[in-house]
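Give me the fold.
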Amino acid sequence: MNQMLKRASSVCAALVCTASLTISGASLVMAADEVDEAVKEQIVMMAEGLTDTIIPLSEEEIDAYLESGDDFTEEAMNAWMGVRDDLGELKETGETEVVYSDNQYTATVPVTFEKEDAEFVYVFDETMMPLSTSVNIKYSLATTLKNAALNTVMGLGTVFVVLALLIFLISLFKYIPGSAAAKKKEEKEAAPVPAPAAAPVPAAPAAPAYDDKELVAVITAAIAASEGTSPSGFVVRSIRKINRKRR
């Protein structure tokens, strides 16, 4: 705890010194969004010093800074706590870039870690007092594609789970009294069972047709009887039906 308090007091002393340097160096700021070299050096020194202080902090030290009551300090701790598990061990710190815009200085410190790269971004006012800080992870292409694939799989899985749940809920409607599905089921169960269809009655067999020879003999005998002669004297050439109009 004593070591933590010493570090906190040293950071406060550094901020006080920086503020005193700011008052004397504020007149060196140039117009048209340009940064004076002296001011730039001070901002770079502050940004890199804050980065070197934040990265090696332990859990207990971060918790102590979170209870400091200072908005900038708490914001810096929360920003670092949200990304440090995704970065891994520190490798090296790159060259800090300072930009002046809208009466504010923005310092970006690129840092290379074991897993991913990151950028510590600090915003200072015209008096070079820190206003806010953020830590942005610069994901590699492989990590970006991996995250996109995982998000796609999770999205599709969520859709299928929701659809299956909806189908299951809809299938339960028939068990709810008074619902349309339940009424339809009751009507189906109460409907009379149709009687089986009667077997078709076989048609009566057609009368066998008379033999032509027998018909000729009968007709010849009838003609011979009406004429009073012998049937042997008649020869039947053909038999035709004559359609006579009825009067």
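Helices lie at 2-25, 37-54, 59-66, 71-81, 84-87, 141-171, 180-190, 212-227.
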